[in-house]
Amino acid sequence: MQGRMLIALALASTLVDMSRIADACTIGPTPEFAVDAAYSDDMTPPPTPTVTAEVYRGDLTKEHGCSETRSSCGDKYAGIELRITSLDDRAPFDKLGYHVRYVSGDSPSKLKIVDGPVLGFGGSVKLPFDPDDESDFAVTLEVSVVDLNGNYSEPTIVTVSEDHLMSCSASQVDSRMFVWLAVGFVLWPRRRLRRTHRVRT
What we know:
The chain contains two helices and seven strands. By secondary structure, it is of the alpha+beta class. The protein has a four-stranded antiparallel sheet, with no helix packed on it. Strands 1-2-5 form a three-stranded antiparallel sheet, with no helix packed on it. Helix 1 packs antiparallel against helix 2. It starts with a helix and ends with a helix.
C-alpha cells in the first residue's frame, strides 16, 4: 500500500511540475533575420519548402510570470503556426529566414505578418491575430525560405482556415485534476478491501 501511495504522490508531483513548465512565458518579439557576409559567394537558393499550418488558441492565465492578474478567461492569445521544412546546402537550419506573404482570402482580425524574412523557432513561424475574433476565416499565404546570402527559394502556397468557434481554454495542464486522480488511485483499493472484509465476516 505504501508503494502505491508513493507512486501516486510522485505522479501528482510530476504533473504539477509539468503544469508550471507549460505555464512559462513564451510570447516575445519575432526575431529578425540578417544576411551574413561570409556567405556572399553562395548563389544557390534553398529548395522549395514543405509547409504545414495550424490555428492555435489559448489562455495565459497565470499565477506567476508575464501576467500579474488572474482570471478564468483572460490573457487570451491566438495565431497561425507555420511549420516549415527546408534545408540549405550551406546555411545552418537555425539561421535560415522565412518570408511569409499574404496572397488572398479573409484573414482573421489583426493578423500580424512581418514585411520581410524572419527567423523561426525550429522551423516554426507564428503569426498572431486578435484572439477575440472567433469568426470563420480562410486565408492563403505564400512561404519562401531565405539563405544567408539573401537567396529566396521557390514559394510554397498554403491555405489556412478555421470554420468553427472555439471555446475559451487554457494551454497549461490543469494539475489539480491529476492530483485528485492520484488520490482516487490510492483510496480505491482501500474501499475494495473493506467490502471484502465485510463479506467474509
